[in-house]
Amino acid sequence: MTEISAKKGPGHALRLAAGWALTVAGLILGPVPIVPGFVLLLPGLALLCAESRWLRALLRRHRERLLLRRAMREMERVGLKIDLEAEPEESSAPRDPGTDNRG
């Protein structure tokens, strides 16, 4: 049985329903002090990530942004600053791709 046909079996809908139920319950119970919402939210997201390609991509983009922000803060802490919004400087003379101007 291939991976694609295994995901489309009868358990696919059940796993999606369980993932969404746990995720919604975790979001609702998040601010409640009796049952911490993350206890339900984490397994719900794990089930959904295993079944849903778009959610995996969404969480991957979020993780990459988080890691980039953390790296930028660390660089600023040690004294380096990179401006991602700045346009690169263009020289007026055309550059020959066969030459190296670094040294």
Task: Describe the overall structure.
The chain has 103 residues and is mostly helical. 62% of the residues lie in helices and 0% in strands. The chain has helices at 3-7, 10-28, 38-51, 53-78. Helix 2 (10-28) packs antiparallel against helix 3 (38-51) and helix 3 (38-51) crosses helix 4 (53-78). 8% of the residues are buried.
Secondary-structure map:
Blueprint lengths: L2 H5 L2 H19 L9 H14 L1 H26 L25
Number of strands: 0
Which outline best applies? elongated
Question: Quick one: biggest sheet?
Answer: none
The average pLDDT score comes to 78
Distance between the termini: 58 Å
What does this entry show, briefly?
The protein is an all-alpha fold and 103 residues long. It has helices at residues 3-7, 10-28, 38-51, 53-78.
Give me some keywords for this one.
62% helix, 103 residues, elongated, mainly alpha
